[in-house]
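Case 161 in the screening queue. Each case pairs one protein sequence with one candidate compound; here the compound is coenzyme A. For every case the pipeline is the same: read the inputs, emit a complex structure as tokens, and attach any notable structural observations.

Predict complex for case 161.
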Amino acid sequence: MLIREAVADDWRRIWPIWHRIVAAAETYAWDPDTSQEAARALWMGPAKRVYVAEDPGGAVVGSAYLTPNYGGPAAAVAGAGFMVDPDQGGRGIGRALAEHVLAAARAAGYRAMVFNAVVETNPAVKLWTSLGFRIIGTVPEAFEHPRHGRVGLHIMYKSLH
Ligand SMILES: CC(C)(COP(=O)(O)OP(=O)(O)OC[C@H]1O[C@@H](n2cnc3c(N)ncnc32)[C@H](O)[C@@H]1OP(=O)(O)O)[C@@H](O)C(=O)NCCC(=O)NCCS
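Case 161 output:
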């Protein structure tokens, strides 16, 4: 599997994955009906550095972005987002993307990474914890999950020193 920086044309390959994940409304605090254009602005906006994971046949199987999580004097804290094709889950693509983005964040001089809204029922919590993130707070009952009802949103933090 290859992880590389995305080019503009990759969006049409990221979008089916993005749409399926956001429409499921289980993991992201974005409108499940987000249009393709609005989704592109969220994922590939000017402040974002975007990556894709490609399988050996050249198909895009996952994507991630890296961005300043705050502005001005707090711009050295990164934020990031990750999506893997649900048909390709559990094969190490998400972990590989996360390791790649953490390395890119360090290389870019970020001092820490924060995830603003990790749904507490998301199996990804275990992945982030295994990569050194810790839960520094939880917004209780913030997320209406289609199966679990009202669940919390974790803020997760990792120092990059
Ligand atoms: C989270 C996500 C990016 C992980 O990608 P992935 O390729 O499936 O993850 P990996 O195969 O690298 O799994 C890494 C670890 O995550 C955990 N994990 C991931 N998905 C899991 C699942 N559905 N069930 C149980 N554990 C899971 C496992 O602990 C696994 O540990 P291991 O490496 O020791 O086996 C992917 O599931 C996804 O796109 N989910 C929907 C969007 C999302 O939740 N993004 C993150 C928002 S915070």
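Case 161 observations:
- The chain has a mean pLDDT of 98.
- The radius of gyration is 15 Å.
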